[in-house]
Each structure stands twice: as structure tokens, then as C-alpha cells.
Specification:
By secondary structure, the chain is α+β, with helices and mostly antiparallel strands. Helices cover 33% and strands 19% of the residues. The protein has a 4-stranded mixed sheet with strand order 2-1-3-4, with helices on one face. Helix 1 packs across helix 3. It starts with 17 loop residues before the first helix and ends with a helix.
Length: 128
């Protein structure tokens, strides 16, 4: 089941987030985005459409985006395995299944910006 809230926000301006898009695009074929949310969730409706637009602008292939729709009790696939408590939660893994970063609803910047900053730092140290 996919999340309606991941439909890209048509008013999101990729040009205003050029660094974010560049970072996500630079790794668009080597990372997997696992997204837990609920279409009923106010925070998901506020945050996920912009993430969807950023991933689309960065040409992240659909097969590298896994969406997990949770019920109002925040139950659903992977909740226990990934220790999901708040939504939206976005876990980014490499192809070996190693978690590189995790965005949780309570961060104070948009998910795409937060993930791009964290990924840049994590992947920079891997290649240094």
C-alpha cells in the first residue's frame, strides 16, 4: 500500500533547493528510502509531499522508495523491526541494508533538507 501523502507537491520549487536535489541525485542509484507514514497523519500530510517532490526532482527510481502506510495506532509493516514510534519516519539505507540516517517527525527542518545534509556528512566520511 502506498501513501497518498508521498505524491509530489506540485508547488515545490526544486531550484530553491538545488543543493538538496544535487545531493539526493548524486546517490539516487545507491540508496533506499524507507518511509513510514499515514495519510490520516497531519505531520505526514505537511511534510511528505515536499519529500516526494525532492525525490522526483533528484530522479530517485521508484524501486528505491519503499512506502509503509500505518494505521492510526501506528501499526504496520516494519514498525517493530525498525523501532518506529513517530511518523513520518524516513530511514535511508545503502544497498547492504546499513542504515545511514533517519529522519523522525520531530526534526525542525524539512525531511529532504535534513536527509540531504545528513547523507552528505555520512557519505563524505565514507569516501574520505
Amino acid at each position: 500500500m502506498s501513501l497518498e501523502t508521498m505524491r509530489p507537491n506540485p508547488t515545490w520549487d526544486a531550484a530553491s533547493y538545488e543543493d538538496v536535489v544535487d545531493t539526493l541525485e548524486a546517490h539516487n542509484d545507491e540508496l533506499v528510502y524507507k518511509i513510514w507514514g499515514g495519510d490520516w497523519c497531519k505531520d505526514c500530510r505537511a511534510l511528505l509531499p515536499d519529500l516526494g517532490a525532492a525525490l522526483e526532482a533528484a530522479a530517485v527510481p521508484d524501486e528505491r522508495i519503499e512506502e509503509f502506510a500505518l494505521d492510526q495506532d501506528k501499526q504496520g509493516p516494519g514498525v517493530e523491526a525498525y523501532d518506529i514510534e513517530l511518523i513520518p519516519t524516513i530511514v535511508v539505507e545503502d544497498d547492504d541494508g546499513e542504515e545511514l540516517t533517519r529522519f523522525v517527525e520531530e526534526e525542525d527542518v524539512p525531511p529532504a533538507v535534513w536527509l540531504a545534509d545528513e547523507l552528505e556528512a555520512a557519505l563524505e566520511t565514507d569516501t574520505a
